[in-house]
Amino acid sequence: MDDISGSKKLNQKGYLLIESLVAFSLVSLCIASYIPFIVGMLKKIDTEKTTVEMHRIQYEQIQKIEQHQAVDSTWKTGGKIYTINPLIDNSRKGVRITYENEEIFIEVRSFQTSIP
Predict the structure, then answer these.
(1) Residues sharing a CB contact under 8 Å with residue 73, sequence separation 6 or more, in sequence order
(2) How many Cα neighbours within 13 Å face the side chain of 8?
(3) How far is the C-alpha of 104 from the C-alpha of 110, rounded, in Å?
(4) What CA dihedral angle connects 37, 42, 45 and 50, to 10 degrees?
(5) Sheet holding 102-108: strands in order across?
(6) Quick one: the chain helix, strand, coil %, rounded to 5?
(7) How far, in Å, CA of 69 to CA of 5, rounded?
(8) Where are the domains of the chain?
(9) What is the mean pLDDT of residues 64-93?
(10) Between residues 27 and 67, which one has the greater pLDDT?
(11) What pLDDT does 86 receive?
(12) What is the phi-psi region of residue 78: left when phi exceeds 0, alpha when psi lies from -120 to 50, beta otherwise?
């Protein structure tokens, strides 16, 4: 009886090696398919964060215009440098924010509130 159980252990060594290789390749395949998804999500998050930051800068610059203060020419935050171009003439006021190929613009028609 001891000889039979001993021979089974010898035959299982090769099986365990193949089973381990198959499990390793399945885990590697899952990780390899997950990495592009994560990279895409990180790029999308960075784009959305840039857009939100641009709107925040725009809001703060409009507040400065409303209080008759000077508008900043550049804004540095999060390692990014945003360019701010004010539009101020007799009839219109506004702010244009640019970063790389993205741009947002807002024109303020009036700072007065109307009471119905």
Answers:
(1) 83, 84
(2) 5
(3) 19
(4) -140
(5) 74-77, 80-88, 93-99, 102-108
(6) 55, 25, 20
(7) 89
(8) 2-108
(9) 84
(10) 27
(11) 85
(12) left
Which residues is 28 bridged to in the sheet? none
Distance CA 26, CA 35 (A): 15
* Structure tokens belonging to residue 23: 């499990």
Is residue 99 a contact partner of residue 80, using CB atoms and an 8 Å limit? yes
Could you give the percent of the chain with pLDDT greater than 70? 80
User: Burial of 64 by CB count in 10 Å (0-12 exposed, 13-18 middle, 19+ buried)?
Assistant: middle
Look-up: residue for tokens 């550049």? 74
What the block records as the tokens of 38 is 């994560």
Residue-level pLDDT at 116: 57
Distance in angstroms (rounded) separating the CA atoms of residues 69 and 12: 80
Query: In angstroms, rounded to a whole number, what is the distance separating the alpha carbons of residues 110 and 92?
Result: 9
Over the stretch 21-53, which tens digit does the pLDDT of each residue have? 999 999 999 999 999 999 999 999 999 999 999
Structure token pair of residue 84:
């701010």
